[in-house]
Design goal:
Order of helices and strands: EEHEEEEEHEEEHEHHEHHHEHEHEHE
Shape: flat
Strand order of the largest sheet: 1-2-7-3-4-5-6
Distance between the termini: 43 Å
CATH topology of the largest domain: SH3 type barrels
Helix content: 25-40%
CATH superfamily of the largest domain: Pelota, domain A
CATH class of the largest domain: Mainly Beta
Number of domains: 3
Number of helices: 11
């Protein structure tokens, strides 16, 4: 994300979307009642004496809408912002949907909270971090994925031609490795390729890659895991592979905090989870770190809890539901906290 302009007096921040992760950040920044201004298309008004009005052509206009709903579409890298037009050349008071993608420019006008400004700074800094891909494989299947700030995005799955624990022939294994390489060559790998999985197949592929594509092989970092597939990638993230390879990622940061919460639950250290318990801890000024799932951030009362925690110098962290740790937090009610002191 690139910030183009800030106006502290009006609360306007103008920004450019530079990658799909920025759309996820914006999804978490926007709340009902916020104002968003952007260039969009809308059918122009056609004045006619006919009983049935004619449909005008679509024209590009700049509109400001008051937000009613926000939808992040990870599968298509789009952000849909729905609301009522409050400023523009036509159709004031009518509904409109802004459909934003990479390279689009928008302005957000709102009363900014501390954690929201931190999120913008984080998105700006994250734009400089390298893109990283994962390859998780065993002798039956390989999974290619990208580590995004909102989670792990699956890109391709390749099945081995053989079945069972051993390949029926050397030719079948070569075909499998060749298929993996062909998929990798059509994928945006970025600065590093983290190869994970159990045992022999992982090592065999890396040796195959060194012989066939030395440039791509130079980007490889290997890490042994007990499982392949998405489970193997999550296992590697828990082990801190992300931080070792490319610095702290957003997913790694969120995963570490959720694991710290689960450890506090298991060892009976000060914690709270669920809306009622967290509200009680916030009112007591006991919350050091508040974890909020992006699945519940717009629920009634959550915004007040976040504001209470910030006013007591606590840290508020929004956690994506698009990775394993976020799903664990969602199972705990979507909101939990690490406490400075016990409240019971």
């Amino acid at each position: 994300m690139r910030v183009l302009h800030r106006d502290p007096k009006t609360g306007e921040i103008k920004m450019r979307v530079e990658n799909p992760d920025d759309l996820w950040h914006l999804h978490n920044l926007l709340l009902p009642g916020d104002l968003v201004r952007a260039s969009t298309t809308r059918r122009e008004e056609v004045k006619s004496d006919k009983v049935r009005p004619e449909r005008g052509e679509k024209v590009r206009v700049t509109l400001t809408i008051r937000v009613e709903g926000v939808e992040f579409q990870a599968f298509s890298d789009r952000l849909r912002i729905t609301g009522v037009i409050v400023e523009g050349p036509q159709d004031l008071g009518r509904h409109h949907t802004l459909n934003l993608g990479v390279e689009d420019v928008l302005s957000i006008i709102k009363t900014w909270r501390v954690h929201e400004l931190h999120r913008i700074d984080e998105a700006v800094a994250a734009a400089q971090k390298p893109l990283v891909a994962f390859l998780a494989l065993d002798d039956e299947e390989a999974l290619i994925a990208q580590l995004r700030q909102y989670g792990v995005r699956e890109l391709a799955s390749i099945r081995a031609p053989g079945h069972g624990k051993m390949f029926p022939s050397g030719d079948a294994r070569s075909v499998f490795l060749e298929d993996i390489l062909n998929s990798l060559r059509t994928t945006e790998i970025g600065e590093a390729l983290v190869v994970v999985g159990p045992g022999f197949t992982r090592e065999a592929f890396v040796e195959f890659l060194k012989a066939r594509d030395p440039v791509l092989a130079a980007k490889v970092h290997m890490h042994g895991t007990a499982h392949a597939g998405m489970q193997g990638i999550q296992e590697a993230l828990k082990a801190g592979v992300g931080a070792k390879v490319f610095g702290e990622s957003r997913v790694g940061y969120e995963t570490a905090l959720v694991e710290k919460l689960l450890e506090a639950l298991a060892t009976d250290r000060p914690n709270a989870y669920g809306p009622a318990e967290v509200q009680e801890a916030a009112d007591a000024g006991a919350i050091e770190t508040l974890l909020v799932s992006d699945a519940v951030v717009r629920n009634p009362g959550i915004e007040d809890v976040m504001r209470t925690v910030e006013s007591a110098r606590g840290t508020v962290v929004l956690v994506s539901r698009h990775h394993e740790a976020g799903q664990k937090l969602e199972a705990l009610g979507g909101v939990a906290a690490l406490l400075r002191f016990a409240i019971k």
